[in-house]
Write a structure and sequence with these properties.
heterodimer; A: 133 residues; alpha+beta; SH3 type barrels; six-stranded mixed sheet; 25% helix; globular; B: 772 residues; mainly alpha; 56% helix; elongated; disordered N terminus; disordered C terminus; RNA binding (chain B)
Amino acid sequence: MNYMPGTASLIEDIDKKHLVLLRDGRTLIGILRSIDQFANLVLHQTVERIHVGKKFGDIPRGIFVVRGENVVLLGEVDLDKECDQILQRVSIEEILEEQRIEQLAKQESERLKLQAVKERGLSIPKADTLDDF
Amino acid sequence: MFRFQSLDEDCTLEEEEEGQVEGDNDIDQFNDDTFGAGAVDDDWQEEHARLAQLDEGVRDLLAEGDVSSASLPPPAGSVPHPSSLPRPSASTLPPPGLEERGGGDLAESLTRLLLGSDPAIAGVGAAESDRSCFPSMSHAQGLSASLQASLLSYQQHQHILHRGPPPLPQMNSHSIWENSMGFGPVSISPGLVTHMEDSPLMSIIKEVGLPKRPPTMRAEDCLDLSERVPPPRSSSPIIGSPPVRAVPIGTPPKQPLSHAFNQQIHCPTAVHVQAPVQHRYPPPFPERLSPNTLLNIAVSCPGGNSPLCRPPFPAGVGPILSQIQRAQLLNSQMGPFPRGGPGPPPMLPGGSVGFRPFFSQPPPRLGPHPAPPNHNPIRHNTTHLHPQHRRMLTQRMQSRGDRGGRGGDRRSRDPYSNLMTQKEKDWVARIQMMQLQSTDPYLDDYYYQNYYEKMEKRLERDKDSIRKEPTTKLITPQVAKFEQTYRPVQFAGSLGKLTVSSVNNPRKMIDAVVTTRTDDEEKREKQVWNKRRQILYTVEKVYSLLLEVQDFEKKFLQTPEEQREALLDQHKTHTLQLYNSLKEKEWDDRVSDEQCLMIMSVRKGKRLMSRLLPFLPPPQAAAVLMGIARNLPGLAKKDKQDQVLCWLVEPVAIVIQSMSSSALTDLLQELQGSEGQLPRVLQNKFGVTLLYLILSEGERMQSSDPNCQLMDDNRWTELVFSVTRELLKVPSSSLSPPLFTPPNLLSLFSRYVDRQRLELLQEKLQITALSR
């Protein structure tokens, strides 16, 4: 299989449905319409999919233009396999609620951990929020 | 006023079309005789009078009824040309009214009048006028039908008459009328007003307006590619610098025209451009009106809420929308003509920008458009057709396609696919390929090349096993030096060298002059730096030599038989140079201490030395080693921070093993050197290791070869004695652990010292009896 170097390999993926994972953790699913040399993507009929546990919810977003550097990975969605999913699809409100709950729980556990660590006299340096690199 | 301005804006944006149209029609736009003073005959007054009469006559007729379309013989449309009217086909409309009234005679007379004024078409027009009259008369009612016919015939005539001057500057004259189907009474912009007087037809239009456009035409014609308006051509000369555009250089080509610009950017060898001489006539009426604007004008009038009150219809939107339409066209043309899409559109603007049925919203709901296989060529021709005519054609074709292309796959139904043209895809691919171009792959991408070779070897080995297709990259061809020389732009016929600054060749703004400061302190500091720089420079030079020598093997294997001799010679010279580099003066055969030390004072130099030693011949290597040993304390001190001397251990060990006994003795002596040197040596890891190496080598010599010359004089023995003494004396703390302890030290020491001391030594140096 011969493939093109760099971003050019995305050319074959044009007009196909893709799942794109962004650096901020969001998952977008859309049809890849256009690319450029920086792997900036134009996604059409994009849907942001939020996963919480075994449930997921889709938020329709329309057209997305994603700057290439913010993409972690992307892959083509197999339309046949997409149908039979183990995950359960729920409404948007529900999934957002679930996400909020999950966030709270995570924050809570984080807080507890920090407290426990402090009690023992140790200190964990807080990671910079903008520290992506 | 406002309207006029907006029209003007759109005007400038469509300059491209002008050029294209000209090309199509072979019209000399810029010729005075065509449009300027020379074009007007002397008897324009006479003509004006005639037309004024006509105007009155027409007005009367029209006052009685609606405007319906019948065809005025199309040649009539060319009448207004001297007065530079935009709407030749405008003439088609009022006369229809006339005709309806039963003015077949009037039409004829009109024809004759109008025809007569233009000598170029007099003959032709007359002949055809009658013909065209009849069909249109029969379709007296049915606005669109008659219009269609009229326009159709007009179109035909246009083709025929194209040798004459165009109806009006550029704008495919009929286009406006085709668009403005849905207009109500139009209040023409002031730009037009100036010429209103000249044309009775225009005045008629002003009053009566244009026929209403049938709304049903919208949906079907969304696929029409003729709606594309090419982007404005930059007015700056294309000399040296990239054309002035609002978009940055990295944007993909939008139009075939811009592709040329991109070419220029990537290949600066496109030079010798003479600035195109363009003098234009100020458009009397905004000939560059995009059909969009026209539509907006028309639509605006009745409602009073002019879209032109809003910011004018951005020309940029035009292309974008049409891109979708282009994409759809491509979709519908899936299969045999994947590239057919972009083809016609560029050609269209020249001839048929006209036909844009609607533009207010992007085509939203597009049902599947199954691909008729012969869509392409027919499409091209339909651009000049009446919208309804075209619609009928497409319907026919669709029905044909329907029967044939039912089983199209999902992708062909996706109305948004192919938004990215093949050209754009190629452009992206080309950028990626360009980045891979290299004249020396071993230099640019050493690791990949090696990896690739390994992969190939492995595949060859595993040929019999499961053959998995390797992923091979598409590598660009070895286009070696194609753009190396940049010749600056030169103007033909200019005196002297004119400087044109561009992105690639920026103009020198400041003359930077190097001034040296004669401050004493600075001088001293500089000297220090200079010395260091000198050393580093020497190191670099020797390194490059060394690398050449080291790569010799590889290169040797790669070169074909004939060139191997030459390569061998080259190799010899390199190695020779390598030796020479260590000598200070050319005639001195001895390896210079100074030079070596200088090199060794730098971390990189030490590394270099360690790599260099294997390539030196034994005597020279030995000399180097002597030098090192002699100056070890100094070196050790300098090395305290880096501790890189230990790199030397391996090559030094090899050198030692090849040394003769006398040399070895000498070396040991050097190591001990002056008073107090040995303790310092012992403090350093490398020093200790070196010492051990020497001793173990000596021991090996003694034990293996009974006739060894080591014992010939007492030097060796004495030296070993002093070493042992020192070793015993030196406190354990200042004794640095060696890199490794050679096994035969114990046997060495057992020769020379008594049992007690031996045990002490053992303990100190942690030499175990096992190592025997």
